[in-house]
Amino acid sequence: MAAPALSQRAEVAAGSGRRARRRPPRRRDHLVGWLLVTPALVYFLVFLLYPALSALYYSFTDWNLRSDAGWVGLANYADLLFDDVKYPHFWRSVQVTLQYTLLAVPMTLVTALVQALLLNAIRRGANLFRLLLFLPVVTAEAAVGAIWRWLYDPQYGLINSVLGLVGIPGQNWLNTPELVIPALAFIAAWQCGISMIIYLAGLKGIPGTIQEAAIIDGAGPWQRFWRVTFPMLRPTTFYLLVTGVIAALQVFGLVYVIFSGNGRSVTGGPEQSGLTYVLHLYLFAFRYDAMGAACAMSFILLVFIVIVTALQFRFVKQEAS
Amino acid sequence: MRRAAKASIYVALVLLAAVSVVPFLWMLATSVKHGQDIYTKVPNLLPVDKKTGEWAATLGNYDYVLGVGGLGRAFVNSVWVCAILVPAKLLVDALAAYAFARIPFPGRDKLFVIMLGGMMVPAITLLVPRIHVTQALGMFDSGWGLIVPNVASVLDIFLLRQFFLSLPGELEEAALIDGAGRMQIFWRIVLPLSKPVLAVVTITSFLFHWNDLVWPLVVTNDPELYTLPLALQQLVASPDGGRAYYIMAGATLAVLPVIGVLLVFQRRILQGIAFTGLKG
Asked: ABC transmembrane type-1 domain: which residues (chain B) (predicted)?
């Protein structure tokens, strides 16, 4: 019984060559294809596309979760931007977020690049060091916030103790408005592991022959870095810059944990110095029930992110040409 | 000169690694100290009695946060959420990715591009209406609310699709000739060949959801449902928040499983990061 079936199959295969397929009918393939993407598609429609469109709609309403949404046109946008009685801390949150981004992103990239260059220069122990430097990234932001609140403790924190050893007076980091952003940016740089790994991958991608040629031409290590390595890393740096800025503009979890201590309601730290844009948005959405305004804030942020990203692309293009 | 350069590289790396790791050691040390022993002028990594200098480690802080602090329940919740969410998400994403990579059906490529476009919308923009949808579906403040709204990821579909595209098509064609159905091919050929990328997606998903604070924060009110990061945040915000020994015990509970995963799967994770950029 088995033999005829086998030979039959062989005939089919031999008869029409390698391309021969006994494919299921096309229509069945179509059906299977759609069936397999259906769960993901339903998810996409329900939890991505619909929310995105309804966020835009709600941004023109005075919606809170309990009432029906009433159309108010551009009022939310106008109030956020111009009415500093209704939203007294909106511009403060913009300022805080820009300061944070301008400080945290460069600090993160420089730290990551230094770490990657050092790791790339050694053989022995490279894996261990890479693992240790990566550890802060995989840590939950709730835990990171908790740990750093304790490290920054003005009286008994490790940071002040270590600074004391070199004769620098201790600071009340998280309660001094001017120090809050630098303290947060330092945590971001501490968590630079992902950028470090991506830089490392970029460094591995630079052909050794180019470095050798530079050495033969008599370039010192400093020259080799500025003339060869760093230019070759430009695409990596650009990718990290764009994604880093997008992430920094949305920083939330960490500040939420750090500035929600001791049972006080979240205020965003001393003089709102840690009131980031998304923390401000969160407060209005979930504490003050101003969902419509929160949606408007999220679209202002979206537009801002698009503009900043486009500018970055443009800047890089110009520089390349 | 060369030797001096090498040495200075190692010195720099040791210093940087110390900055990375010491906060965790400090966390661990604080978590096993008695309350009165943590407030010292000179920092001490060892859990010793402040006055007598004798060894005085305690697990009492863990006892407290696991029980009264609510972290025991939260730990169990986090395990449950990840145990259901991560495999479910992997299945949904892999099925879709396979269809996008291998099964020609009308509208496929347009659909894929549209879904990729959805990835560009920042999470915060979606947050408020997502809560609304979750409410409308009757999942708000429930275990389902923690799981279902996260059960697919466009980024993961993209990654899996890229990998599936790289598999040799001959294998599938041979199987099709032998009369295998699409699902058989998916289970018996494609998935077994894709273990590396499946591992990367599984691990990064686990890390992301184990650590996630924002979604549980907005979707749950009932402390019975809190996941570990949220329970830890609540502990920080509670009147206990000033008690570093409790908080550090809680942070240790949140961090240790992740360190375990990192140690076991380090190569996969670090390789994965290089081309995924984790999540976010």
From this structure: 75-265
Find the length of chain A: 321
Pick from B22, B95, B128: CB nearest A285 = B128
Q: Which residues pair with B55 in a beta bridge?
A: B48
* Residues of A with Cβ-Cβ distance to B115 under 8 angstroms: 40-41, 44
The radius of gyration of chain A's CA atoms, rounded to the nearest angstrom, is 27
Partner-chain contact B104 A29, CB within 8 Å: yes
Nearest Cα to A129, choosing from B222, B158, B12? B12
pLDDT (tens digit per residue) in A17-47: 444 445 555 677 889 999 999 999 999 999 9
Cβ pair A146:B248 closer than 8 A: yes
Residue with tokens 């275990």: B143
- Mark yes or no for CB contact A138/B259 under 8 Å: yes
CA distance A255 to A145: 7
* Nearest-10 crossing angle of helices A291-320, A234-249: 160
Is there a contact between A194 and B277 if contact means CB atoms under 8 Å apart?
yes
Specify whether the CB–CB gap between B145 and B227 falls below 8 A: no
User: pLDDT tier at A108 (50, 70, 90 boundaries)?
Assistant: very high
The yes-or-no verdict on residue A4 having pLDDT over 70 is: no
A36/chain B closest Cα distance in angstroms: 5
> Rounded to an integer, what is the distance from CA B280 to the centroid of its chain?
11
**Rounded distance between C-alpha atoms, residue A267 and residue A287, angstroms:** 11
In the numeric block, the tokens 């979890």 are attached to: A253
CA distances from A250 to A133, B240, B280 (A): 24, 29, 10
Note which residues in 231-250 of chain A have CB less than 8 A from chain B.
243, 246-247, 250
- Report pLDDT for B38: 84
ipTM of this complex? 0.91
Distances (CA, A) of B13 to A125, B10, B273: 10, 5, 21
* Residue B264 confidence (pLDDT) above 50: yes
Residue among A195, A218, A59, A22 at smallest CA distance from A116: A195
Within 13 Å, how many C-alpha atoms sit on residue B63's CB side? 6
**pLDDT at residue B89 is higher than 60:** yes
Give me the mean pLDDT over the A280-306 stretch: 92
Please list, residue by residue across B170-206, b when 16 or more beta carbons sit within 10 angstroms of its beta carbon and e when fewer do: eebbebbeeebebeebbeebbbebbeebbbbbbbbbb
Selecting from A24, A132, A161 the residue whose C-beta is nearest the C-beta of B43 gives A161
Contact criterion met (CB below 8 Å) for A122 and B13: yes
Say how far apart CA B210 and CA B77 lie, in whole Å: 10
